[in-house]
Design a protein that fits this description.
Length: 243
């Protein structure tokens, strides 16, 4: 990262070491999410693929986790969601790296993907996603929180600058965006997709609500077309369409 500008120097304030955080919505998500929700609940007990879940060191009490090949399941709703999510990753990769269309055509997107069904009291402990560049979470149904349960099912991100609050006084305690620090707490809406760098540590607070909290998550890493995947035998998307 260089701070030497190509244009003549102009004194002023500049954000540096910024963390990209991307949000968007699945178009016309209402009926789509209703249909997908019914399928995901059915697949908890009757999955169309292998019925086991890979061991994970991340604690998830009260959470059902599918196998990690969800975006490869041959189902119309699953495939529609996979295309939407991976195309958004493609858009983000192209935008943040300033890639041209020919440069994007050389890239191949590999991914793990799974879904979570979270019952009352369920949560996901503090973790990040090593060996990936981008991670995403799509909300099928955030559930209905109990009255007063404002912290129910929050996706909570930790500031990676662990030393940023080592000294606090009136000079730095109330910094405006984007210069503040601390924990970012995100309340999901149904149909919302969030993308973030995989290195960010995050957790999901205990779900205190009615019904069930349903999300789809995925990790993506990108290779040039003539490079082998990081994981032998892993299937990939041919390319992500940044649109």
């Amino acid at each position: 990262m260089a701070l030497t500008p190509s244009a003549p120097f102009t004194p002023g304030l500049e954000p540096v070491f910024a963390i990209p955080f991307y949000r968007t919505h699945f178009p016309r998500a209402g009926l789509f999410n209703h249909t997908l929700k019914e399928k995901l609940i059915l697949w908890e007990s009757h999955p169309p693929g292998p019925s086991h879940t890979r061991p994970s060191p991340v604690r998830k009490p009260g959470v059902y986790e599918s196998t990690f090949d969800f975006f490869h399941w041959e189902d119309p709703e699953v495939q529609s969601l996979a295309r939407f999510c991976l195309n958004q990753v493609g858009y983000l990769v192209q935008t943040l790296n300033a890639y041209s269309a020919p440069e994007m055509a050389e890239l191949r997107f590999y991914h793990h993907s799974w879904f979570h069904l979270t019952q009352r009291g369920g949560y996901t402990s503090f973790h990040n996603h090593p060996m990936a560049s981008w991670s995403g979470v799509y909300c099928v149904d955030p559930g209905t929180p109990d009255p007063g349960a404002s912290q129910s099912g929050l996706l909570r991100f930790m500031d990676p600058r662990s030393h940023s609050s080592m000294f606090l006084d009136p000079g730095n305690s109330y910094l405006v965006s984007p210069y503040g620090f601390g924990v970012l707490e995100h309340h999901f809406e149904a149909g919302e997709l969030v993308l973030f760098p995989s290195y960010l540590y995050h957790e999901v607070s205990p779900f205190q609500g009615q019904d069930i909290r349903i999300t789809v998550a995925f990790n993506v890493w990108v290779r040039y077309q003539d490079e082998p995947p990081l994981e032998p035998g892993l299937r990939r998307t041919v390319a992500a369409n940044p649109g």
